[in-house]
Amino acid sequence: METTKRVWSYVLLFMMTVCSLSLVSCSSDDDDDDDGGDVAPAAFEAYAAKYQIADAGAAFSSVEFTESGNYIMVLNDLPTTGAKSLSSLAAKKSPAHMMFGNLLRKAATRSESVYSPILYGKYTVDADGTYVLAGYGKVKVVENGAGNAYSLEFMPSSGASFTYTASKQNRDLDSENTNRLCRTWNTASFQIVAKINGKVLLDVTASTMGELIKKLQKWAESNDEEFDPSDWEYLDIANPEQVVFTKTGTYMVKYSNSELAVSTWRWVNDSETMLQYSWENDFEDSYLNGFASVSYKGSQLVITETDKEEEDGESYEMSMVYYFNEVKYINR
């Protein structure tokens, strides 16, 4: 029972950490692993671009048109919320809680402070190259002919038009694996697997994070002598519904409560099967970034976050697996 309690503490703390990433789950419909294979270019590859607004006092700091046909416009100078306190849970003194105190602080930082004021939706492109943004209006991009300089004319559906100057960010992440990843993906399901000394003790799947948490809570009630319902209040989170990766290094998550979280990402190995993400564009600060492996199961994207620890001669391994289905928009 002591081993089970340690594993459960590990599960709880791991869940609190990875909930901020919030991606997807498993599917039983396709059990064949896939290395990616030949993949058609994303539908809006030719129109994908990111522009950094240069004008002081501009309403937007950047505008990005993604490979799959979404626009991401980040507003300027609006406050983000403060980090939620997890001091009551972090104060628990079981070995697992002490071991993962740093992960608790990391989870607290990411869970509340990463949300940016963003406009997000689908776009199409007119015959003259003007971007038509669903729910907003239009944006026309004109190259100024002076190096990397552009004019962006914003034409909202309601209100007067206005123009900003901008520079175009390089799409440096360009490879076969990048082309496969950089799309818009809907979450399909979630899986969490716990192992001790290589033996699987817990393997739970669900179609939403809320369902997954309920299954874990039910497991805890049956297996943890010190089960405390108050531990679960921090895991009442919105479900991640959609994620976006782009070749400029943007990684965005859309949640069921309409919150949007934007971070950055990059490859960290030569085979481009492991990525690093950062909520504050700081890949050196362990509080603000994480690592995840990328693979494919048939047509699904599979992203896995794994954490391993050793204590008193025993090894603990926890994996959160997210499964995604590609979103395919067309230009009409």
Please give the structural blueprint:
Blueprint: H1 2-18, E1 33-34, E2 49-53, E3 60-65, E4 70-75, H2 87-90, H3 95-99, H4 101-113, E5 118-125, E6 131-133, E7 137-143, E8 150-156, E9 162-168, H5 176-181, E10 184-196, E11 199-206, H6 209-223, E12 240-245, E13 250-255, E14 260-267, E15 274-278, E16 289-297, E17 300-311, E18 314-326
Antiparallel strand pairs: 1-16, 2-3, 2-9, 3-4, 4-5, 5-6, 6-7, 7-8, 8-9, 10-11, 10-12, 10-18, 12-13, 13-14, 14-15, 15-16, 16-17, 17-18
Which labels suit this protein?
332 residues, alpha+beta, eight-stranded antiparallel beta barrel, eight-stranded antiparallel β-barrel, 6 helices, 18 strands, elongated
Can you walk me through this structure?
The protein has 332 residues and is α+β, with helices and mostly antiparallel strands. 18% of the residues lie in helices and 39% in strands. The chain is built from 6 helices and 18 strands. It has helices at residues 2-18, 87-90, 95-99, 101-113, 176-181, 209-223, and strands at residues 33-34, 49-53, 60-65, 70-75, 118-125, 131-133, 137-143, 150-156, 162-168, 184-196, 199-206, 240-245, 250-255, 260-267, 274-278, 289-297, 300-311, 314-326. The strands form 2 sheets. Strands 10-12-13-14-15-16-17-18 form an 8-stranded antiparallel β-barrel. An 8-stranded antiparallel beta barrel has the order 2-3-4-5-6-7-8-9. Strand 7 and strand 8 form a beta hairpin. Helix 1 runs parallel beside helix 4 (101-113). The longest helix is centred in the N-terminal third of the chain and has 17 residues, at 2-18. It is elongated.
